Amino acid sequence: MLVHWSVLVASGLLEAVWALALARAKGFTRLGPTIVFLVALVVSMAGLAFAMTGLPTGTAYAVWVGIGAVVTVGVSMLRREEDVSVARVLLLVLLVGCVVGLKAVS
Predict the structure, then answer these.
(1) CA of residue 59 relative to chain centroid, distance
(2) What would the pLDDT profile of 36-72 be if each residue is shown by its tens digit?
(3) Which UniProt keywords apply (predicted)?
(4) Helix or strand or coil: residue 97?
(5) Is residue 106 over pLDDT 80?
(6) How many CB atoms lie within 10 A of CB 85?
(7) Domain layout of the chain by residue ranges
């Protein structure tokens, strides 16, 4: 089961990679980011599919999305592409808490 969780976390991180690459691909007009998007998307989905063979579907999906969302927003804030505010950071912390809570009760 540890393998499933490890693959799920890696897949969640790759979700952030493909989301960030998608923004940089500019409607698939830039080749490099488009290739990164496609590779990260396929590997991320394959990892999620594998993780779901040993974890509850709802929990696996929520954890995957949560990791991807928090990392995507965090990187965007660090790059100054999105505003940083106390409310946004607090909501991201709450989201992480929810993801940890789902894992704890699984």
Answers:
(1) 14
(2) 999 999 999 999 999 999 999 999 999 999 999 999 9
(3) Cell membrane, Membrane, Transmembrane, Transmembrane helix, Transport
(4) helix
(5) no
(6) 10
(7) 2-105
The residue count of the chain comes to 106
Half-sphere exposure in the Cβ direction for 13 (13 Å, CA) = 5
| Non-local CB neighbours of 17 within 8 Å, separated by 6+ positions | 36, 40, 44
Mean pLDDT of the chain: 95
Query: Do the Cβ atoms of 79 and 43 come closer than 8 Å?
Result: no
Q: Are 37 and 25 in contact (CB under 8 A)?
A: yes
Tokens of 5: 């969780």
What is the reported pTM? 0.90
**Token pair listed for 42:** 């396929």
